[in-house]
Amino acid sequence: MDQYDLSDDERELAKLVREFAEEVVAPRSYEADRTKTLPLDVVAQMGELGLFGLPFPEELGGQGGDYFALCLAIEGLGRVDQSIAITLEAGVSLGAMPVFRFGDDAQKHELLPDLLAGRALAGFGLTEPEAGSDAGATRTTARLEGGEWVVNGAKQFITNSGTEITRFVTVTAVTGESGGRKEISTIIVPNGTPGFTVEAPYDKVGWHASDTHPLTFVDARVPEANLLGQRGRGFANFLHILDEGRIAIAALSTGAAEGCLEAAVDYAKKRTVFGEPLSTRQSIQFTLARMQARVHNARLAWHHAARLRDAGKPFKTQAAIAKLTASDAAMDNARDATQIFGGNGFMNEYPVARHYRDSKILEIGEGTSEVQLLVISRALGLDG
């Protein structure tokens, strides 16, 4: 990454994460994927390196860095293991960041220290069987009764919600009506709350080592003080969090695209076909060249969006462009790398096979590609 405009500190962080990814994460990736197990000892080491605390102030236990630094770390991990990378991304963007952005002082000081140190994880429950980007379809409810929120409903596809170190999930819920529209708020529900059930993990196509569960709430009671942020602003606040998360997913996608490129280049140089290295074939050379171009464009896109975000400038459209560009790059590079590997590319022991399975969700999670196109087209004044 020396050709990119990084500060000395950023370059040192990228180097640190790359070494950690190669020496600690990569050797465990195949077995973790095969057994569908999130290695919590690796998560703990990530916490010791300060990765979960990168974009948070030091007085709360963070590293005093910025969102760009977090994305550098996510990209470096995504290059070798998307499950580990999404654990960091979701742990920060969906677990800790809502508390940091919208929590009161008591919530911040109680919840953030363990999250920022990697000693605990948290999830964010937005998606439901009937609702995701469509806030009006939210069916989970929370009513005030005797100084407690009584939560009823269901959530699905919730990352980091059922690990041994998961402390809570923050859920969007209908708390009333305002002007004929549903009033949606966010409520913190600690794991272990009676009536809150973390269901069995999903049998997923990819991201096997990432922890993902459906959740159900049946008269789950939490204190009134567990309201996160202003009542009725839950969905609006989450959309802001989602914009940031799209940059992080773009960084993860860029790492995945680069991992596929590096593996394909190495394999093409070593693989002999009809007495010559596969890399001497012009069709293979051109495929690898296109893969490199995708990595370059994806990285420039997320760098631009992250720099805008950290400078306090509008970045919503640039985040959508970054996620669209980078997730396409990850999926396209995974397909091309698998083709270059031939039959070996269909074997799960090879990283490109895992990237092929893992990368599809990058075009879906935290806003589908179609949602990104909608955001971009609206920025062009094309409201329908």
Please tell me about this protein's structure.
With 384 residues, the protein is α+β, with helices and mostly antiparallel strands. The two termini are 41 Å apart. It is globular. Helices cover 51% and strands 17% of the residues. A hairpin with a 2-residue loop joins strand 2 and strand 3. It has ten helices and ten strands. The protein has a four-stranded mixed β-sheet with strand order 1-4-5-8. It has a four-stranded antiparallel β-sheet with strand order 2-3-7-6, covered by helices on one side.
Structural class: alpha+beta
Helix content: 40-55%
- β-strand percent reads 15-25%
- Please trace the helix and strand order, writing H or E for each element: HHHHHEEEEEEEEHEEHHHH
Helical run tally: 10
Average pLDDT rating? 95
Q: Rough shape?
A: globular
> Low-confidence stretches at least 5 residues in length (pLDDT < 50)?
none
Number of distinct beta strands = 10
Distance between the termini: 41 Å
The main sheet comes to: 4 strands, mixed
- What gyration radius follows from the Cα positions, in whole Å? 21 Å
Q: Biggest sheet: strands side by side, in what order?
A: 1-4-5-8
How would you summarize what this structure contains?
51% of the residues lie in helices and 17% in strands.
Give the helices and strands, then pairings.
Blueprint: H1 8-35, H2 40-48, H3 67-78, H4 82-102, H5 105-116, E1 121-125, E2 141-145, E3 148-159, E4 166-178, E5 181-190, E6 196-198, E7 212-223, E8 227-228, H6 234-270, E9 272-273, E10 276-277, H7 282-310, H8 316-341, H9 351-359, H10 369-379
Parallel strand pairs: 1-4
Antiparallel strand pairs: 2-3, 3-7, 4-5, 5-8, 6-7, 9-10
Helix pairs in contact: 1-3, 3-4, 3-6, 4-5, 4-6, 6-7, 6-8, 6-9, 7-8, 8-9, 8-10
